[in-house]
């Protein structure tokens, strides 16, 4: 904590040996009024969560499992773009660590050669008019080794160690928090436009043949762009463009 160069992120820092989920803990703290920038971090999660009640594998001491409380005064419709903002900040942080192959898969994954290094789970509380708080949950696999991965993740997950990046978790955390804070203040100062442009540059989804499973529908087509709200635009074979608000993307191998 002492070595952090951030102004706000991590000023209040809650460290736990173990917890169910840092997102749950952060929401509890936010409800009690915890200030913007509060960071909740744990060595392991007993019930780490992904989207749609999927799980997040969070073994003791192997990763950065943390949540960040934000209280921005932009409109609630902007909140989903915080996931894209976090993905941009994290990818830039990995590039800084020497991992130049890290790229973003819409909406919330950071991949290295098709394997998932990071998952992001953004949750918002508030009304239609006002954000009360955003909890941004981030899981980064740092020290996990290939042979330690559970069977179902063996082919789809990776870690900094597995990618040959030898870095202590504290050092990685410092670089990541600084990058997140920098990106957040750029958004507060000048809006999301520049961050969305950076997202386009860092994306591994755009220009690819994809399959996207959205609630109620599955589409195959080419991911052409994201719109100003961060939705994914997919051109399907009949030429129409579908706007995807939420869903899971698989990139079709060429
Ligand atoms: C996510 O969901 O990727 C969001 C994960 C967010 C985790 C952080 S950790 C701190 C905070 N506290 C929490 O409880 N959660 C957040 P989704 O896109 O639904 O992807 C979930 C899928 O990723 C799973 O179904 C697995 O296939 C895969 N997966 C699970 N654990 C993984 C891991 N450690 N590394 C790579 N892939 C994993």
Report a brief summary of the structure:
By secondary structure, the protein is α+β, with helices and mostly antiparallel strands.
Features:
seven-stranded mixed β-sheet; 4 helices; 12 strands; binds biotinyl-5-AMP
Task: Describe this structure as you would to a colleague.
There is one protein chain. The strands form two sheets. The protein has a seven-stranded mixed beta sheet, with helices on both faces. Helices cover 23% and strands 32% of the residues. α2 (81-96) packs across α3 (169-190) and α2 crosses α4 (193-202). It is built from four helices and twelve strands, in the order βαββαββββααβββββ. The termini are far apart. The protein is an alpha+beta fold and 254 residues long. The chain binds biotinyl-5-AMP. Biotinyl-5-AMP binds next to α1, β3, β6 and β7.
> Compute the gyration radius: what is it?
18 Å
Overall body shape: globular
What is the N-to-C succession of helices and strands? Answer: EHEEHEEEEHHEEEEE
Output mean pLDDT: 95
Number of strands: 12
**Biggest β-sheet strands, sense, barrel:** 7 strands, mixed
For the record, give the distance between the C-alpha atoms at the N and C termini, rounded to a whole number: 45 Å
Specify the oligomeric state.
single chain
Please work out how many helical segments DSSP would assign. Answer: 4
Structural class: alpha+beta
Helix content: 10-25%
Give the uncertain stretches in residue-range form: none
**Bound chemical compounds:** biotinyl-5-AMP
- The proportion of strand residues reads 25-35%
Describe the strand arrangement of the main beta sheet, using strand numbers.
1-2-3-7-6-5-4
């Amino acid at each position: 904590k002492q070595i952090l160069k951030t102004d706000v992120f991590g000023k209040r820092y809650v460290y736990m040996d173990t917890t169910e989920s840092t997102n749950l803990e952060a929401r509890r703290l936010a409800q009690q009024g915890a200030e913007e920038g509060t960071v909740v971090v744990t060595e392991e999660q007993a019930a780490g969560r992904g989207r749609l009640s999927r799980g997040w594998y969070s073994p003791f001491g192997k990763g950065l499992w943390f949540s960040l409380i934000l209280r921005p005064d932009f409109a609630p419709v902007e909140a989903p773009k915080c996931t894209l903002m976090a993905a941009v900040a994290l990818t830039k942080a990995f590039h800084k660590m020497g991992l130049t192959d890290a790229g973003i898969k819409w909406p919330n994954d950071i991949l290295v050669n098709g394997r998932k290094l990071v998952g992001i789970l953004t949750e918002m509380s508030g009304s239609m008019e006002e954000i009360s708080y955003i909890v941004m949950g981030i899981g980064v696999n740092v020290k996990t080794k290939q042979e330690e991965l559970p069977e179902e993740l063996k082919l789809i997950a990776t870690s900094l160690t597995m990618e040959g990046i030898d870095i202590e978790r504290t050092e990685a955390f410092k670089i990541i928090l600084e990058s997140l804070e920098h990106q957040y203040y750029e958004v507060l100062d000048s809006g999301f436009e520049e961050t969305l442009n950076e997202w386009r540059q860092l994306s591994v989804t755009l220009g690819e043949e994809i399959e996207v499973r959205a609630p109620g529908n599955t589409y195959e087509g080419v991911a052409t762009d994201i719109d100003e709200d961060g939705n994914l635009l997919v051109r399907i074979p009949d030429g129409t463009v579908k706007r995807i608000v939420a869903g899971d993307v698989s990139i079709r191998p060429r």
